[in-house]
Amino acid sequence: MKKVRKKFMMGMFTLAFIVTATSCSNSSEKKNTEPEIIGVSDKIVEAGSEFHVMEGITASDTEDGDLTSQIKIESMPSLSFTNGKTIPEKAGSYELTYSVTDKGGLTVEKYATLTVTKQTSEAVIYKDFDFDTQHLVDNKGWNVKVAEGVLAKGEIKQGAYVFDITSPGNGDGDIALVKERLPVKAADYKVKVWVKSSAKTYAHIIARNEGTEEWSTFGGAYNMVIEEEITPLELNFSVDKEGSTELMINLGKITPNPDNPSDTTPENFTVTIDKIEIIEAVGEETQTPIFTNDFSSTDGIYVSADDGASATATIENGAAKIDIISYPTEGGVWSIKSEIDLLNVTIEAGKKYYYSFKITSQNAQSGECLIESATLYDKNRVDFNGLSIGANEEKVVTGIFTAENAISDPIIRLQIGAPSDGITANSIVIDDVVFGKVEGDLDTTKTIDSFIAFGKGSDNATNPDYPWTTYNGTDEDNERGVGTIWTENGSLFYRIDQGGTTDWHNKLICGYNENPLVLKSDSYYTVEITAKATKDISCGFFLNVLGTWEPRLSEKLDITTKEQTFSFTTTDPFVVDMNFEMLFQFGSEETAGLGEVTIEISDIKILQKSIS
């Protein structure tokens, strides 16, 4: 899945205040406070419908009291107001100005946008998602093996392979998840099992060589600890010729140290496996640096700050130092950009490149690491990566990519405008920057075996009634982001087992390349979402044009433990039928700190109003 930058669009306009001062008075006179207008906000109304321009709006100040009746309203383009009402006949966007002047001569103005949509038919249900149907899930060739007499059960449920273990038996192989006859060739392999347990336990992962009569292995990883928080268990092995392997994840009785028999597999616990990744690497490659920066001067290091933020770039002790004096008052991660110019470097389309740099942050900081054009930004971008640094942590950030486009002015751009909770300023140090070419014939492929009832690789991949899937940040080797989905009792559940630090690390998706959400032209759409969660959690909701970043809805959902219904309506009809994706993006520093969270969506409806 291609990663694209996602933005919150927090509003359609910016409130502004204009104050006109009266003539100066002597210091002994009481200061006149400016009036205040409350309740002004953007509105949407259908052409031909009556709009109450003053509904919910009041004005007052300390000296004069209620000034609501003194509010004056102007519109551009012009609208005619009678007794605080108007009937706009023409669809379009109208900028409204609310102004009030107190007896002391102080004037305050506030602005709002009135969006007038075209006349439509009555709303009808365009799509009502059915979460009642139970779905068959592809086990991806993984099967449960439990020895006779052992009190344990393994099955696919709640979007994962779940083992309910009463007693672990007498040996590690008494309880196992097994994939037989997996083809292998002369290559290096890595198996990553994303797993958690209700109580500390152990696992072995073994790759048995099925090409020999005697029992032998390509390799094994033993006595690996499974904790209550989800973590990847890894097995690395190599194969020198074509054959097949039996992968075994053994969960039965394991006692790592016979001298400490109390440290062993427990009883009455549950093991949950969200996904299993199998990575195959064939060939070799070399990395040749073509650019380094020793930061002997400030050449090639820049910082910019917008949306009320302030930041500076300096050189200190042979490294670049970015001081964030203040974070943005509005906007997001893109509001502060630190840029490392790759001087005299040209990126060629189709070539493979790598980069690395060392970064330290005084306070925890997340963001985005981009390789793109200095002048064209995301219009000519070749790599997108997440960035997450703990307080006072030194981290080496690396990336390898094949350039889809040529770039004559490449830059490493860090977008770091979003602060951690409670942080108002920060200091970030960047050093040891290296950018270079990757050459060779190394070919790496990853297979992700997940156990959800929707999405790619399942029978529902082309079923328009069930266009649901999830994306995890760890699917593409980012540090964080694990989750799964399933249906139960008429609801869709999305469990975040590990929260990511950026908003694309935990995504619930409706509609994707093989199975888009198709919306018809010449209509307005309202999306109604009824949801709750096991913990209070926020996410961005986007109705986005598939294959690009062009959201027609961009909203924030604050989901609580109490069920709520959210409703959002598009303001522009489509000229032609269009393919969309609905995105629920949960990743953030706050999400990462919540631990396991389950979101229950009991109903989603899409209502259509056709233009008459």
Rg (CA only)? 29 Å
Helicity, in percent? under 10%
Shape: globular
> Can you give the mean pLDDT?
89
Major pleated sheet: 6 strands, antiparallel
Low-confidence stretches: 1-28, 455-460
Structural class call reads mainly beta
Classify the beta-strand content into a percent band: over 45%
- Through-space gap between termini: 38 Å
The helix count comes to 1
Q: How many runs of DSSP E, i.e. beta strands?
A: 43
Give the tags.
612 residues, single chain, mainly beta, six-stranded antiparallel sheet
How would the blueprint of this fold be written?
Blueprint: E1 36-38, E2 43-46, E3 51-52, E4 58-61, E5 65-66, E6 72-76, E7 85-86, E8 92-101, E9 107-117, E10 124-128, E11 142-146, E12 152-157, E13 160-165, E14 175-184, E15 187-197, E16 201-209, E17 217-226, E18 231-239, E19 243-250, E20 269-282, E21 285-293, E22 301-305, E23 310-316, E24 319-326, E25 336-341, E26 352-361, E27 365-373, E28 377-389, E29 394-402, E30 410-415, E31 426-440, E32 443-450, E33 468-472, E34 482-488, E35 491-498, E36 506-510, E37 517-519, E38 523-533, E39 537-545, E40 551-559, E41 564-569, E42 578-585, H1 589-592, E43 597-610
Parallel strand pairs: 2-9
Antiparallel strand pairs: 1-4, 3-7, 4-5, 6-8, 8-9, 10-43, 11-14, 12-13, 13-20, 14-19, 15-18, 15-20, 16-17, 16-19, 20-32, 21-31, 22-25, 23-24, 24-31, 25-30, 26-29, 26-31, 27-28, 27-30, 33-36, 34-35, 35-43, 36-42, 37-42, 38-41, 38-43, 39-40, 39-42
